[in-house]
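Risk register update: the risk of archive-format incompatibility is retired. Evidence:
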Amino acid sequence: MPHLHLPLHNIILLSILLHCFPLQGSETPIIKAQARHAIHAVKRRNQYKQNVQLYEKKIQEKESKLGKNDSLLVPLYEKLGLLHYQFKNYRQATTYYEKALQVRLSPNGKSNKKAIINLLSNCGLAYYFQKENVLALAKHRTILTLINSSNLENTNQDQVVKQMYMNYLFKTHINIAAVYVQMKQYHNAIEEYLNAGDLKNEISLGSLYLAHFYHDLANAYYQSNQITKAITNYEIASKLQEKELGEADFITLTTWQQLGDAYRANYDFTKAKNYYEKTWQSAQKYLPENHTLMVSIDRNLKEIKREMIQSRQKEEKARSKNDSWKNNEQITESLSPSRNITIPSKSQYPPSKTYMLSSSIPVIGAMLGIAGIAKATKNSSKKRAKEKIGIAN
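Archived output:
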């Protein structure tokens, strides 16, 4: 059943009409649900504006009486910052968080370390959502400095306080890793995730929080092209999500799809196809066909089937080529002389009786020399014959 995406004012109008004139049809529950959600959102937005005006008025009154650096202003700054943060007005949120930090870190701030850490964390997250990565890292790293100065290795440290700081340390490493992911510095992100992972056995974490940790670590490995490690962490996250959320939950379905992507990137097309089909079979029971996840899975299934056919064709072609090469090699070996023939020694074959000309004598010169010798021999024979005739006379 497709969802209807209507403008806010149309949804409100429809809700009024449906209340007065109920319709008969399958779309009515969907429109009513969207109308209720839209009306609730409008109410929250109006309440947000009223609260902002109220806090701003109180801040102006106190600043005029006490000045801007009085510690009594800190709760108002923090509440107004949190209010802006909840409604995703992050720029205004950081403005008031910074004002609160300025007072808390001043000599007259009267602030404990826990309050400062919470404020730094909220401010760092607000900068993160603005993509102000350098400022976000600065806030989170200040938290690490404060925690490391708390001497957590001290055995006399209160265990409750130590546990609190260990939780802050874990979450801060996670937040720093998220900033690095946003900066596409995936190796730095992995290092921070692993720093957090070293602490996970020392603090109490719920299964869902652990699943979230392994899922984000898997994403970082995947983005850094460490596919095998990505698959390992996706598998851990998937098992935790299936146990806590069930197989029909959107988060579980998303992790299955990402596992399919990871196996596909690792050229394990069979497992990739299995995860895509598993996601499709579960998702189609709860999601409409035009849902983003359904459309994505449908496309992935078509692509993976095509890639499997291409891979099979390449394997067959390579196998055929290899077989042809082996056959040619066997034919060549059968036609070539045996490799076990013993090369005869020179004594078995005495030198030929044909006299060879010295390489230093030109061939033409040698031929002329032989002709000259033959001519001289012939002249000498004639002379001796004449001499014999004269003696006879």
